[in-house]
Amino acid sequence: MKRLILFSMVCFIATVTQAQNDSIKTETLQEVTVQGSKVVQRVDGQTIYPTRQQLESSTNGYSLLSKLTLPHLRIDPVMHTVTALSNLGSVQVRINDMVASKEDLLSLDMKAVQHIDYIDNPGVRYGDGIAYVINIIVKKPVSGYDIGADLTNTLTAVNGDETVYGKFNYGKSEFEVNYSLGYQNFKGTEYEEKASYELESGTEYNVLRQQLEGQNKSLDHKIQLTYSLSDSNYVFQSKLSAHRDIQPDRLWTKFENYEDHSSSRTSSPVLDLYFHQDFKRHQSLTANAVGTYIHTDSHAEHNEGGSYAYDVTGKTYSLWTEAIYENRLKPFTLSLGTQYGQKYINNEYSGDAVASNSMRSSMFYFFGQLKGRLGKLGYMGGLGVSTRYYRQAEWNDRFLLFRPKMTLAYPLARNLKLKYDFEISQHVSQIALVSDVSVKQNAMETLVGNPDISPNRVTSHDLRLTYSTPKIMSELQGYWRLNANCNMEKYTRKDGHFYQTQTNAGNECSFFFIQSYNRWEAIPEHLFITLYGGIYRFFNFTDDYRHTYTAFNGGASVEAYLGKWTLTAYADNGWNFMEGEHRGHQPAAWYLTASYQMKNVTLSLYAQHPFCARPLTHKTEVLSRYIHKDTSQHSRDLGNMLTLNLTWHLSSGRKYRNIQRTMNHRDTETGILQSK
Fold first, then answer.
1. CA angle (15 as vertex; 10, 16 as ends), nearest 5
2. 385 in a structural domain
3. Do the domain assignments include residue 29?
């Protein structure tokens, strides 16, 4: 552990020492920014200005983000995902401060991109569980059209993601239609589970669940219609989308003596209305309303120790509203806002898991925030008050939490900045785990919901030392988080059967990490090198168990821009973590990319997990005193995976101006309790 901490400190010091030779011209008073730098350090994160080569060689939003190598994130340009390499929360990607869909990122116009705001400590106005926000700022087209296609197909497996789009602008109006088709049929999945159950008699019952055949199918359709009306001081946007997700054999597995099978079909129309108005004296008002309906039909079947099958028909209705007032005063900016959400879930279980689960939930949140500067000291402070209400059958409860947040940033030298973040937030369990439904996992285990779970308070401290020049950005970070009375899993046994649920009475979950991140522009505009690494320590304490765990996380990337060619290489060792009685491992990822640009067409070839026939896709370990279980999964189709991406677009008469949307919300949670 001492060696890893020493390594992180040495990386940071060495980088800073080398950067002393870089010439610095001027310094702004607003953000401690070096003139000409492509990365601007802010109170709440960074602003990144992509190079001309990065923009011209990027085929879509995922391709662009992957070239930036943002700290703590993994961007997969083939599978079109953005995930956090941490246990801090999820990632929210926005365009002009509007939460962006996958289709929005695939149809992103690179010529319109101005900069990217990477917020690594979101303020009190962002939703629960959001650890990082990526906001891509683009110019608004006011004339012409843009049509195109982004076609991604794997050459070595059945996997594809096809998107076609058209955008038409006339004066203040923009019309956009976007359709995407995703399909997948991964075979050759290898699953192995070694489980040891301690029975009431004191004897051990050992089980080996070893998969012989496995298959994962999916078919996904989505169409999105958008109308925008904007002027210099207002924006109105209406977005209607319809999503159909079909998983005929979501998880089909054949074991030595039995089979598992599951399938699902989901339909979800969404209506999103947005309005923003600027007023005199630097004031603005923003409002957003999102209505969502989700219909789900699913089936699950297990044959271990006898047949066990059930069906679920689920309906989810939700409405989310938000309003924010902002006044850009001197020397600070004042933000006041409120959020209100209402959700109704009705899930009917039939078969061997007979249950009728109806739940109503609502939330109300009010927040205020100040952001400004006192001399050289940058600050951001906010306070939020949230209340949540749940009603299920005869059970109902209400929870109240005060959510303060403070950020202080101070320049120690011309290019050296110290920043400290403090926050109290709220962790809310998945609605499915709050239900009163139980679902059998296998012959020995049952997953049980717990309506008595309450949201828990999360306290975090974040200290960072950042050195930034036009060629080098280096950061040393120390982070600590405490979850008091947190929602953690608990195993119980009765009559030779084992039950898994969640409780939060007297539990304590915490972890800390020290990480070094370093990015170097080795050859201006042509060669970029990124290296990061850190050590993590986890603590999970309850009345039943005390678990600790130490993990190391690291990665590197190289980007080379050679005329019409772009070459990239990326690798990380995954993410190791512990939560409750589960010790998990998010597998390592590595890929090579070669792209060639020909006017309006770009061809890219991605090689994922080269020289690996069956890469690891999943690994967990259960450490209960009643159950010890090791689970691993490998995929043949993901090994030596070659994927071809073709991007084509045609535009004419495009003129741009700046507008910005400041909020959005999307609901995907159905509250259905499912077996693994």
1. 100
2. yes
3. yes
In sequence order, the β-bridge partners of residue 374 are 377
Q: What is the pTM of this model?
A: 0.80
SS3 600: coil
Total structural domains in the chain? 1
Give 12 or 605, the one with higher predicted confidence.
Answer: 605
Residue 325 CB-half CA count within 13 A: 7
Measured distance CA(267)–CA(468) in Å, rounded: 47
Contacts of 76 (CB under 8 A, 6+ apart): 62, 66, 82, 83, 589
User: For the CA atoms of 111, 115, 119, 123, what is the dihedral angle to 10 degrees?
Assistant: -100
What's the confidence (pLDDT) of residue 87? 67
Q: For residues 172, 173, 174 and 175, what is the CA-based torsion angle, rounded to 10 degrees?
A: -170
Structure tokens at 586: 């998010």
| CATH code (residue 589) | 2.40.170.20
Pairing status of strand 527-541 against strand 601-608: unpaired
**Do the beta carbons of residue 434 and residue 359 sit within 8 Å?**
yes
Band (pLDDT 50/70/90 cuts) for residue 657 is low
Q: Please indicate, yes or no, if residue 112 is contained in any of the structural domains.
A: yes
Q: What is the largest CA-CA distance in the chain?
A: 79
Query: Beta-carbon neighbour count of residue 315 at 10 Å?
Result: 15
Domain that holds residue 543: 2-658
Residue 107 φ then ψ, to 5°: -100, 15
SS3 386: strand
Is there a domain that residue 449 lies in?
A: yes
Sequence-ordered strand ranges (E) for 231-307: 234-247, 252-255, 259-279, 283-302
What pLDDT, on a 0 to 100 scale, did the predictor assign at position 30? 40
* Tokens representing residue 202 in the block: 């004191």
Strands (E), 376-470: 377-392, 395-411, 416-427, 438-440, 445-448, 456-468
User: With contact defined as beta carbons under 8 Å apart, do 549 and 564 qualify?
Assistant: no
Q: Are 532 and 515 in contact (CB under 8 A)?
A: yes
Predicted confidence (pLDDT) per residue in 235-257, tens digit: 898 999 999 999 886 555 666 66
Contact (CB, 8 A) for 240 and 224: yes
Each residue's pLDDT tens digit, 401-428: 888 999 999 999 888 999 999 988 877 7
Going by C-alpha positions, the residue among 419, 528, 515 that lies closest to residue 471 is 528
